[in-house]
Write a structure and sequence with these properties.
heterodimer; A: alpha/beta; B: 87 residues; mainly alpha; two-stranded antiparallel sheet
Chain lengths: 380, 87
């Protein structure tokens, strides 16, 4: 392993790999250290939906700009990322939900998203498998440019492209300590040696809190256990992701035809417990049956657990900290995959001293000192 | 051509090529990249075969790369688990 580099990225999830690529593209020396393998954590366990319909402008903008990158990413990286844009259909259940949806749609339209409110007939037209009554839906919002990409293909595409540009990715390499000297990051101590570096990027997902502690920074993030399941593959029935903020459910039909989705488990807890539960399976199966009755006859193949790295306002924590050279890239709260392309670009611009394409100072940890505006549009 | 994963139609050549190209050291990485063992049988035949190929290629012992399995043990219908009215 190198004894010296310019940037060490902790974590080879989508954000770590995308940032490695953006930095290597700008000529920076980059070393990524990953305690397991690429996309071991949240990235490899996520629904990999790409949604631009957010309630906060920050998230909506990050997602919109990310979609613009996703659309060209296979060509740029030289590997197929499996992008499909079948839209996101977000159920509206009552008057209160309608009020919030109208506000969201207005903001989303103002930044140029093709979002609209649709009713029963159009819901059935877009996804004939859905039962609006079972969903308890009075309407929905729909954005046709939302979609999905293969989380493995996308992460490996970034990783392979980064490597071709000279970035080094070390798997099974665990960070044991980060040395700080005179308020500046000095070196990273791993189980496979030490690396002197100017910058350390904390992209360790649900484990970011532990990494930050090594430089004396306490983070408000909580690792929240989330479960998902997948069915046998079926012929194509619908193209959109279906979600509900009220029920917390999300599901879509993947490239190979399987239905993949999740919902908050009745036994959902904070912490790193990874065993799947039967209560999740039962609750998700029941809700899937209500949302899309024909699915009752479809078999579940697998269920698993991942973690959301949740912040108090469900917005990511990005940028510089009180320790010079220690950069945050975490707190994605369940939507790190979909905003990774733009996040990586912005952090690369920050590290390289370029002008940022959009400001990220509101996403630093400083915000928790004042009053926070919570992102409410969260599922899973 | 030797088929290893029947559900996802993956050959021994595919596995060797992927190990070489991406530097895979675990079955989990092969699953991510090839969908190995992610089909209807949930890898009950192929993962052991793939583990042997991986052991041969990486020099690791079979014990180090044995597969883990995710529930349910056999595919089960959504309607059977979810019940009619959440029962």
């Amino acid at each position: 392993m190198e004894s010296r580099t310019e940037v060490v990225i902790v974590g080879a999830g989508i954000n770590g790999c995308a940032l490695a690529y953006e930095l290597a593209k700008r000529g920076k020396e980059v070393v990524v250290v990953e305690k397991n393998y690429i996309a071991y954590g949240a990235t490899g366990r996520c629904g990999a939906g790409i949604r631009q319909q957010w309630a906060t402008r920050e998230n909506a903008l990050l997602a919109k700009k990310s979609v613009e990158i996703f659309e060209k990413l296979s060509d740029e990286l030289g590997y197929d990322i499996g992008l499909r844009q079948g839209g996101y259909l977000i159920a509206i259940h009552d008057e209160e939900g309608m009020e919030q949806a109208k506000k969201n749609v207005e903001m989303q339209k103002s930044i140029g998203l093709p979002v609209r409110i649709i009713y029963e007939d159009e819901i059935k037209e877009i996804a004939p498998i859905l039962d609006p009554k079972g969903m308890e839906a009075i309407a929905a919002t729909f954005c046709p440019t939302d979609g999905h990409a293969n989380p493995f293909k996308t992460t490996y595409a970034y990783a392979m492209a980064a490597k071709k540009l000279g970035a080094k990715i070390y798997k099974f390499t665990e960070v044991k300590d980060i040395k700080v000297k005179d308020g500046k990051v000095e070196k990273v101590v791993t189980n496979r040696g030490e690396i002197e570096t100017k910058y350390v990027v904390n992209a360790a997902g649900a484990w970011s809190k532990e990494i930050a502690k090594m430089v004396g920074i306490e983070m408000p993030n909580k690792p929240v256990r989330k479960e998902a399941l997948v069915t046998e593959p079926l012929k194509r029935m619908f193209d959109c992701m279906v979600i509900s903020f009220k029920h917390g459910i999300y599901f879509s039909q993947q490239e190979e035809g399987q239905i993949l989705g999740g919902i908050p488990s009745p036994e959902e807890k904070v912490g790193y417990y990874m065993e799947p539960t039967f209560s999740f399976l039962k609750h998700m199966a029941y809700m899937l049956g209500k949302y899309a009755p024909p699915l009752k006859h479809v078999s579940i193949l697998r269920q698993w657990t991942g973690f959301y790295d949740v912040t108090p306002d469900a917005l990511p924590i990005l940028g510089e900290t009180s320790v010079e050279g220690f950069i945050q890239c975490n707190g994605f709260s369940g939507h790190g995959f979909m905003i990774a392309p733009m996040t990586a670009k912005l952090l690369a611009q920050l590290i390289c001293g370029e002008k940022l394409e959009m400001p990220i100072d509101r996403l630093s940890m400083e915000r928790f000192k004042g009053e926070i505006t919570e992102e409410r549009a969260v599922v899973g | 051509m030797k088929i290893v994963c029947r559900c996802e139609d993956i050959t021994e050549e595919d596995i060797i090529k992927t190990i070489d190209e991406y530097g895979c050291e675990t079955l989990a990485e092969l699953k991510q990249l090839l969908r190995l063992g992610m089909g209807h049988c949930q890898g009950r035949t192929c993962l052991i075969l793939a583990a042997k190929i991986l052991a041969r290629k990486t020099g690791k012992s079979l014990d180090e790369i044995m597969p883990s399995f995710r529930p349910p043990v056999i595919p089960v219908e959504i309607g059977l688990i979810g019940g009619k009215d959440g029962e």
